[in-house]
Amino acid sequence: MKRRKFLETIPPVGLGLFVVPNLTLCSSSNQRGIKGTTRVPLSVIGSSAKISSDKRIAFGWSPYILNPDDVVLLNANPLSQDAHVFLRITVALEMWYQAILHVSVPDEGETHLGILDIRYSSVLVPYELKIDSKHIPLINKYGIKVKLLTSKPFAFFEQSSKEISSSVFTPHLLLSSSDKGTVSDFLNCFMSINSVQAFGWREGTVLDGLWQLYSLKGEEKALAAIKEHFDLFFDGNKNLLYENSRNNPRDNRIDGIESTIPYATLARMSPDHPILKTVIEAWDSYAQENGMVTGGPTITAEGCYTVAYPMAVIGKVWNDSALKNKAFEQLRHRFVLIENGNLNLRYHNNKGSYSYKNWARGAAWTLLGFARTLSELKAEIQDQEIINKFKEGVDNVISMQKANGLWNGFMHTDNAPDTSGSAGISAAILIGVKEGFLPTTYRQHAEKCWTALQNYLTPDGLLKEVSQDNRGGLQLQQGNYRVIAQMGMGLMAQLYAERE
């Protein structure tokens, strides 16, 4: 499936020079004396199961599918023992369940290496297992055996397109002289195809981060990365090709209010793109009698960022005053989510009740949506009531910031930090300070978070300790299960871009 045609469909004016960098880390057959970080590709030996005929794999990439009790062998060229070692595989089929993978060396004693516990995952998300380097001689001799222990199929990417210069998504061993990455590692990884996510709110968050790096920091690599990302989703005839959260094709269709955040970046790059009219039509179809765009009777925080903000951007590039005013109205409808010292993900109109109180990523969606919408339209619309509500929300979250600078998954509880929610909240704070909506003293809260986030980078620059997609209900979110996720990198990139 060839989709890499987006550049041919957009006007060159204002885009600068596209220079597509090769940002993948090098690998070689001789890994002796590791300095820095390298990804060593793994060959896959085994017989893959077949995908259901009604499902489609992203970008036409090749998946390897394990059925329960299936085994696959992963082999690499000889590895160095004097390095930190991580096994990586990336999910290729959307998951609404848990997969447990037993990882071992198939030697005579079946040497146990560890367990990969993958729960409720979107596609294009890598999972890793740290391996004790003492096992490298055995791995060099026998390879790595992976067995699926749970009762439903699990699929990982075996191969990406030969046109795509990415080594993150295919099976590999990450070797590094350090167990932690730097900001430079983060930016190099993020400003590439390695940050691509499933189309919708995940990829929209990434695209927004890339746009902010370009527009605020002048990063031409970020602009080139946006082009690379859009090449994966649009063909030469401007058709949108993607799959929903069940791996069902959704070409040229809109998949709910959470799926419309990517169009903020698309409108900036290609304001005349025909899919934007489809977006407006979808918002109209989702609108309630009072004009609130939502998926039903429940008011959700996501709409602040995934509806109000792209609505403001499209309204601005089209000079459509009605859309601009509708964007502000979307925020006003969601005032109810900020109440009594809390930020709530959902308000259930039919029950008059709240759920997901003080969930960090929900707070990020609310505050980032307010901040970006206000910032986008500040020269044309000033609404002090919305600004005041935004500040109230920020004051609420500041009261729950932890001593380490981060916010926990549920900000008022003792569960583990969520780096994605923390980054989004902090980006919103810096936007508010920059635009004069918040006192300058609030900057310190975002800076403290930025310092802490740098401790959660993998050696090659991915972001760890992100709260998993909200598919497993409260039980999953209230626990300490955390993942690597590029959509979290999108929020961290927005924080970086807003820093002075």
TrEMBL record:
<dbReference type="InterPro" id="IPR052043">
    <property type="entry name" value="PolySaccharide_Degr_Enz"/>
</dbReference>
<protein>
    <submittedName>
        <fullName>Glycoside hydrolase family 88 protein</fullName>
    </submittedName>
</protein>
<keyword id="KW-0378">Hydrolase</keyword>
<dbReference type="InterPro" id="IPR010905">
    <property type="entry name" value="Glyco_hydro_88"/>
</dbReference>
<dbReference type="InterPro" id="IPR012341">
    <property type="entry name" value="6hp_glycosidase-like_sf"/>
</dbReference>
<dbReference type="InterPro" id="IPR008928">
    <property type="entry name" value="6-hairpin_glycosidase_sf"/>
</dbReference>
<dbReference type="GO" id="GO:0016787">
    <property type="term" value="F:hydrolase activity"/>
</dbReference>
<dbReference type="Pfam" id="PF07470">
    <property type="entry name" value="Glyco_hydro_88"/>
</dbReference>
